[in-house]
Amino acid sequence: xxxxxxxxxxxxxxxxxxxxxxxxxxxxxxxxxxxxxxxxxxxxxxxxxxxxxxxxxxxxxxxxxxxxxxxxxxxxxxxxxxxxxxxxxxxxxxxxxxxxxxxxxxxxxxxxxxxxxxxxxxxxxxxxxxxxxxxxxxxxxxxxxxxxxxxxxxxxxxxxxxxxxxxxxxxxxxxxxxxxxxxxxxxxxxxxxxxxxxxxxxxxxxxxxxxxxxxx
Length: 216
What we know:
Layout: H1 2-5, H2 8-20, H3 22-27, H4 33-40, H5 44-56, E1 60-62, E2 68-70, H6 72-75, H7 86-96, H8 103-109, H9 113-116, H10 130-152, E3 162-166, H11 172-180, E4 185-190, H12 195-205, E5 211-215
Parallel strand pairs: 3-4, 4-5
Antiparallel strand pairs: 1-2
C-alpha cells in the first residue's frame, strides 16, 4: 500500500534524470558519481541519491568500482536511442501528470479536468504554440514507435496500395509502413501544426515521393 501511495515519485525521478541530462550521460558508458556531477553541474550527494532511485527502478546499475551505467531500459530515456521514450516521459511530467490531481472533481461533475480548469477542448491550443505542439508530436511518435514496426508486418495489409493515417502526427506509423511495403503510398492527415515535422521526417527517410501530408 505504501508503494501505491507514493508511486508518483517514479515519474518525478525519471523527469529529473531527463532534465538534468543524466540518461544521456549514462548512455555514453560507465562513469563515477563525481565525474557525472561535474559534467551535469549537480551536487554529488544529491545526484548519488537520484542514481540510487534510478537503480531501484532498473534504469541504471553500478559496477564493482561504483561507476554507473544505463541499463537497456534506461537507454530508452536517452535522446539518441532509436525509439527513445524521452519525449513521452517529458510530456507526461510537464503536461499530463498535473491533470490527475483534479480527478475527484472530474468524477464529481462528469466533466474533464481540462474543461473544469477552463482549457479549450481538442487540440486547437497546439496551433498557437509551436513548442508545445512539437513536444506533443514527439511524444506521440515515441508512443507509436514500439507498435509501428509490428503493425507494418501485419498480413492484413497485404495488397494495400495506399494508407491514410488519420491523426498521424509526425508520420511514425506511415514511415514504418513505407519501409516495409516498398510499393505502398501513404497520406498523413492531421492538424496543420504537424506539417513541418512530418514533411521533415518523410524527407529524412527518403520516402517523400511516396507520401504526402494533408492538413485538416
